[in-house]
Design goal:
The complex is a heterodimer of chains A (110) and B (122). Chain A is mostly beta strands and 110 residues long. Chain A is 0% helix and 45% strand. Chain A has strands at residues 4-5, 9-12, 18-24, 35-39, 46-49, 63-68, 73-78, 87-94, 99-101, 105-109. In chain A, the strands form 2 sheets. In chain A, strands 2, 4, 5, 8, 9 and 10 form a 6-stranded mixed sheet that branches. In chain A, strand 4 and strand 5 (46-49) form a beta hairpin. The radius of gyration of chain A is 13 Å and the shape is globular. With 122 residues, chain B is mainly beta. In chain B, a hairpin with a 6-residue loop joins strand 4 and strand 5 (48-54). The radius of gyration of chain B is 14 Å and the shape is globular. Classes of the chains: A mainly beta (110), B mainly beta (122). At the A-B interface, strand 8 and strand 9 of A face strand 5 and strand 10 of B.
Chain lengths: 110, 122
């Protein structure tokens, strides 16, 4: 099985850009799609990126996803940060036997 | 508009079986290309995948839970269910039901229910 490793926390100021990484421990990050979920305090997760870089309708284009095979990692980038973006963010991927979530990254917008 | 609602006991005794149901509205559980699944989140911790069921009835389980998990579908009620046997305090969590759209299990946009807290305690 594999693991997805995320930074525990990141912080940035309103209006700036932040990138959250998600590194796959084994197997190619490019072989299986990556999803990203936002979870605000006290709420259910919602999908902000699916299939590496697809944005669901209703999610602002300030959110983008990418894959970097050289570092075997995926990234979620949020530009023009707003206080409402403050939340926990989880990456998720899969292989032939299981689905795996990253440990989550707490984004603080201050 | 798709809605998923979890229901079931909020308190389960150790060694017993946890049973939850997810009622789907705003869409048919029999529709193709959807995976219906369960994810849990222990208090203050991250997300853990439990398993999924395809509209055809095929099931996929987290290997670490597989021996204790059963997911099934009741198309007549537009519901799917989770059973987790031999529970311990480590199974205390918020349990979410979800639909994942896509051709591959584990990929695609995921719609989540509001979640239900299940506590395992005597």
């Amino acid at each position: 099985n594999f693991m997805l490793t995320q930074p525990h926390s990141v912080s940035e100021s309103p209006g700036k850009t932040v990138t959250i990484s998600c590194t796959r421990s084994s197997g190619s990050i490019a072989s299986n799609y990556v999803q990203w979920y936002q979870q605000r305090p006290g709420s259910s997760p919602t999908t902000v990126i699916y299939e590496d870089n697809q944005r669901p309708s209703g999610v602002p284009d300030r959110f983008s996803g990418s894959i970097d095979s050289s570092s075997n990692s995926a990234s979620l980038t949020i530009s023009g940060l707003k206080t409402e973006d403050e939340a926990d963010y989880y990456c998720q991927s899969y292989d032939s036997s299981n689905q795996v979530f990253g440990g989550g990254t707490k984004l603080t917008v201050l | 508009q798709l809605q998923l609602q979890e229901s079931g006991p909020g308190l389960v005794k150790p060694s017993e079986t946890l049973s939850l149901t997810c009622t789907v509205s705003g869409g048919s559980i029999s529709s193709s290309s959807y995976y219906w699944g369960w994810i849990r989140q222990p208090p203050g911790k991250g997300l853990e995948y439990i398993g999924s069921i395809y509209y055809s009835g095929s099931t996929y389980y987290n290997p670490s839970l597989k021996s204790r998990v059963t997911i099934s579908v009741d198309t007549s009620k537009n519901q799917f269910s989770l059973k987790l046997s031999s529970v311990t305090a480590a199974d205390t969590a918020v349990y979410y039901c979800a639909r994942q759209d896509g051709a591959i299990v584990g990929a695609g946009r995921r719609y989540w229910g509001q979640g239900t807290l299940v506590t395992v305690s005597s």
